[in-house]
Design goal:
alpha+beta; elongated; SMI1/KNR4-like; 7 strands; seven-stranded antiparallel beta sheet; single chain
């Protein structure tokens, strides 16, 4: 016994075959587009990871030069309106010169796009880690930024005081967390 398709006229069978071929070709084209998109995403991710590694290994002086441009473009700068409080000044002496230079220059640096604020006034708050001093916070995700006593490293803690990330310096933090390679800017 022959199937239903064999009882149909030849034109109907040809049309059905063409429709099946069209659907199959469309599915193959869609799959190829997805595969190409995945390849492009992988290439872009590799480039970003390479750029992040390049920034992380950058000398502090070079990171400072690049971050100054970023600060001018993206940050609201609030210089000290009067003398710096003595307790803040004493605390600053415990920090690396690269951190001191930023905190002595500005009472507050705020990045409105991300919610990050850097302020010497936070130095007097009790740090969650021994040997560290709070210098900033990210108000949008409730993270704290800590400077290591005497060292240039900046440590980012989440709201449970667990380490999220460590940056080679405050300038590296600016480039990686506030710059174009920031996860927020890539999203």
């Amino acid at each position: 016994m022959m199937g239903v398709v064999s009882n149909q006229p030849l034109a109907w069978r040809i049309a059905l075959c063409m429709a099946v071929i069209f659907v199959a070709a469309t599915i193959v084209r869609y799959i190829l587009k997805v595969v190409r998109s995945i390849k492009r995403l992988r290439i872009a991710e590799e480039r970003i990871q390479s750029k992040i590694a390049e920034i992380r290994t950058m000398p502090i002086s070079e990171a400072e030069a690049w971050s100054k441009k970023l600060i001018r473009e993206k940050a609201r700068l609030h210089p000290w309106s009067g003398e710096m409080p003595q307790d803040v000044d004493r605390m600053l002496l415990k920090l690396h010169p690269s951190v001191q230079s930023v905190l002595r220059g500005y009472q507050l640096l705020s990045f409105p796009d991300t919610g990050t604020e850097i302020s010497a006034n936070l130095l007097c708050e009790m740090p969650p880690l021994s040997g560290y001093y709070q210098i900033g916070m990210d108000k949008s995700i409730h993270h704290k930024l800590l400077a290591k006593s005497g060292g240039p490293e900046i440590t980012e803690l989440n709201e449970e005081d667990a380490i999220v990330e460590t940056y080679p310096s405050l300038f590296h933090f600016f480039l990686l967390a506030e710059g174009d390679l920031s996860p927020r800017n890539l999203a």
